[in-house]
Target: Undecaprenyl-diphosphatase
Amino acid sequence: MDFLLLLKAVIMGIVEGITEFLPISSTGHLILASELMNFWTAEKSAVFVVAIQMGAIAAVIYEYWARLWGAATGLFTGEANGRRLAFNLIVASIPIVLVGVTLGQQVKELLFNDVAVALGLIIGGFIIIWVEKNPPKVNAQEVENISFKEAIYIGFIQVLSLIPGTSRSGATIIGAMMLGISRKAATEFSFFLGIPVIIGAGLLDLWQSREVLQTSHDWLVVAVGLITSFISALILIRILVAYVAKRDFMVFAYYRIISGLLILLFAFTGWKLW
Model:
């Protein structure tokens, strides 16, 4: 058994759990962490990166089980808030599902590289700064107040997250804020919206790549990453909800810009830190 590989899987799981719900691009950080640690083969690493995101999203289901169950049952019982949230999550998920199924593999082949990640980080950072300095009027304080129309717009914005470095959380949270949704509601809606998207993408990728993970040890590595990402994401969710209640996202914008510029510097100069 390769214990060093399992240790790297733990580190990757922690990176995923911490970055999945922050507006700084979990995929971008996982790509960079994978290269930094020389983690697994390219094929297996790509499958691992998608798969362990399901661990982080499982933390959302655990943390918000009561509200999510209310949304699910609201489709059948007719409870207004639950029904609205459920329908909004469904319609907001449709655009990225359609684009992901048709173009997801091409995007992965073309844009899963350092330069694409860096540009996504930098551009997203400047967008966050612009939104924070020009905050729109808030018209939806809670997730249940988000309108059907706003949910559709957020769904189209989420498609941008297929580009590494953009950040699914960053795109949906900042996009929702631009529509007049409160910071807290935008953050929670982003949490919930990740459930069908990430679980669907993870299961589909595992099925399509079932021949890549051939041994029980391969699956053990994935399982370790899943469990670690679940635990670290659960901690992060609770911290982030408390954070957004009092502060803005400017620190993440600066982090994105600085890290993106550093990645470009190393990419174009050939310098290495390791």
Summary: Residues 3-267 form one domain. The chain has one domain: 3-267. The radius of gyration is 18 Å. The chain has twelve helices and no strands.
